[in-house]
Amino acid sequence: MICIKTDLDIIIPCYNAKETLFYTLASISTQKQAPSFKVYLVNDKSKYDYQEEVNHFSNYFSIEEIKLDTNQGPGGARKEGILRTNSPYLMFIDSDDILYDCLSLHHLYQAIQGYDICISNFILERDGVRVVKERNKVWLHGKIYNREFLTKHNINFNNTRANEDNGFNRLILLLNPKIRYLNNITYVYKENEKSITRSNNRNYKIAGLEGFCINMKWAIDESIKRGGDKAVAPYLATSSLISMYYDYLYTRGEPNNKDILKFSKILIRYYKENENLPEKFLQECIKYKEEDLAKEKKEYKKDITFKDFINEVINYD
Q1: What share of the chain is helix, strand, coil (3-state, %, to 5)?
Q2: Would the pTM count as exceeding 0.85?
Q3: Segment 234-275, tens digit of pLDDT
Q4: Are residues 171 and 292 in the same domain?
Q5: 206 near 247, Cβ under 8 Å?
Q6: Is there a single domain that holds both residue 54 and residue 84?
Q7: Could you tell me the CATH number of the domain that includes residue 74?
């Protein structure tokens, strides 16, 4: 495969995405004042190919399908996309999401100049309700990356199949990139109830929290290997455990609720390395999480404190 070098590579992992991919690509085709870019559809061993989409949208922009021999999950597909492309900047779009408006690529590309990562606002769309996510550091949505920074630190996705995007972004953030925050909305994340990873199946969501903890541990360990600041580890572990705490409250009374204690134990060593973090940091994490839950209208009963939760994690057998 010959890569045509452009300013920007757009990597879209695709697994049986016929129903939604057209709308994703259509949103890209409307872009104005955009840098030169190429779209890569990474076919993650779908039941069919995407040549129909390639043929149609090649009239509007440069597009290519990369076919994988085995199903690797979205993280593995993105990993292959990074390895098989070469433009100075790259970004990811899910095959059932869309760009927000016709200037999304223009705003992102202009904003990242001189920076390692640009983080814009995006919309979370669920059940007809739209919530604006501002300065979200952990999801891939509405972000653009400087390839030079990724290459310098040998950053790519790992082989996990849940929350690998969170691990990828956390590792980047732990290595002190130059960050640009963009107030524009550039992306619409459509929560698709038919998608396995986005289903309303609470059992699956709780199981996915194991991937979250594994990826947070991976990000901490990998950042230290790459010369990152060891003192940051307790802060990331604590903020992650606060997130797990609210998931624990949210699922109280459900059969697999205790699994959250088991998964949280993956991070407890890093938390215990500095249990006396500033109270201000703890309160800021709690405030951010509660504001986020309020926006998403998630209800929970705060029947135990965070410290009680930590004790349950430590004593979980």
Answers
A1: 45, 20, 40
A2: yes
A3: 999 999 999 999 999 999 988 899 999 999 999 999 998 877
A4: no
A5: yes
A6: yes
A7: 3.90.550.10
